[in-house]
Design brief:
Blueprint: H1 6-9, H2 12-31, H3 38-50, E1 53-54, H4 55-62, H5 66-78, E2 82-87, E3 90-98, H6 100-120, H7 126-150
Antiparallel strand pairs: 1-3, 2-3
Length: about 150
Amino acid sequence: METAPSRLRGKASWLINKTSLHAHRLITEGLSPIDARGYHFAILAALEEYGPASQASLSQRCGIDRSDTVAMVNELADQQLVLRAPDPDDRRRNVITMTPEGRRRLDQLDAVLGEVQRDLLAPLSPADRERLVDLLGRVLDHHTCSADRRVGR
């Protein structure tokens, strides 16, 4: 591939987009041999950190479209990694709970994604990796908070 024009390489948005595409490919390649997806990790991580949750809550926490969340929860339930039960306070809603097998699967996914992160960020020192994650988190938090303010959350 030829080197991109310096005007492009000088734009953070372009660099983030290109790096994101590469990261997505690495994640897909890393998880496909174990029949997993990045969404599986996101949902299981949210359940581990926050405990049982509705599908709508998982959708919001993970930044996944609601219909995609339903499909991913279905996959996780089929693999007996999560349990879905009616919410005792609102029978129209389901509460999703991680199973012990789901906890083991989360650890497996975390290990695979750790390798993917090391591959993706190979040219950076450990300190630079932490700094990059911190900076990207700050940018994302800023825009997430701005979007929440726009819709009145």
